[in-house]
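Closing statement on the pyridoxal-5'-phosphate sub-project.
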Amino acid sequence: MPDDMLLKWRPEFPILQKCTYLISNSLGAMPQAAYTALKEYADAWSSRGVEAWSDSWWEMPVRMGDLVAPIIGANPGEVSFHPNVTIAEAIVLSCFDFRGPRRKIVLTDMDFPSVTYLCHAQKSEGAEICIVRSEDGIGVDLSRLLDAIDERTLLVPVSHVLFRTACVMDAEAIVRRAREAGAYVVLDVYQSAGAVPVNVKEWGVDFAIGGCLKWLCGGPGAAFLYVRPELRATLCPRLTGWMAHRDPFAFQIGDMQFRDDAFRFLNGTPQIPCLYGARPGLEIVGKIGVEAIREKSRRQVARLIELARGEGFTVNVPEEAERRGGTVAVNTPHAYEISRELVRRQYLVDFRPGAGIRISPHFYTADEELEAVVQEIRRIIDTRAF
Ligand SMILES: Cc1ncc(COP(=O)(O)O)c(C=O)c1O
């Protein structure tokens, strides 16, 4: 897709008029249409009151999943919404018993800490944790990860794109090995969905977890969970609630009677306003298509690396272009202080220890913004303005 077609979306994102927005790996820019969507929520609440539940609210955590499904290669009805990735991951963990001989959870030290804390917390339930460490601080060696998955492994909750360095992991190979060993993969697609193509069906992913906050421009409170439909009936989450019940309005006391569809993974009252807020971003990414976003991202990521290296900065990214996601981590002495000064000057970026200043162009980023941010880093260093 030609760049001018993508740049036509810029007026739809008010913040792009005010600053150089290069932080979609953390919080995607808010679409103008989110105002309308959130007003729709307020109007429904105000004018329909409790009837809004039967109009659409009750079904929304799964209906909204139908907007995520094409972005991750799932089918309608297979994705449910949750307040955050950690909760979605906890729902998956609660489907498993760690007291049997198969009790190992294989993680990497490049996965998002919140998810790893949750996995470590399963040790009191009998889980054994195996951590595969990165050797270069950029990626995780695939063969060492695959070797760690054995017949004692129950779960492999790993990231598709690593949050620190945006290194793309070979999800298909991980799923293949896990399947061979009889383990399940919980793929964290938070840093890929909307930026890098994901195909849960083609890869045979068991569980995929992500959110709309970042590359899907959907704001906080809108995370999602895909469960391979063939697995669904075999899973009974202990983290459950009335929305997963076959007959919630019978208000029966006693054992859970699970629904057979994606509602099975819900629990209590959903975060309705967040679901309204997430819709416009999902619709925009759906219209553009992840392939077109990825094509532009590949080009802009390569350009950023070239610009940063041209200034003599260290760039913590994989050497192979195919293994790079949407973010470039630029490291310099005093990188944290420089990142704060960049933000003060309205170049919105962030910083991660061990990686550097994270710069993330998205489909709405103009090429000149890449040049401008690298020049600004140079200016800050040269004038010692940090
Ligand atoms: C790969 C990845 N997983 C998980 C999270 C956080 O998930 P949550 O705060 O929704 O639990 C992040 C957040 O920044 C992330 O980059």
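The pocket of pyridoxal-5'-phosphate is lined by residues 84-86, 112, 114-115, 159, 163, 188, 190-191, 211, 223 (CB under 6 Å). With this model delivered, the sub-project is considered complete and its resources will be redirected to Aim 3.
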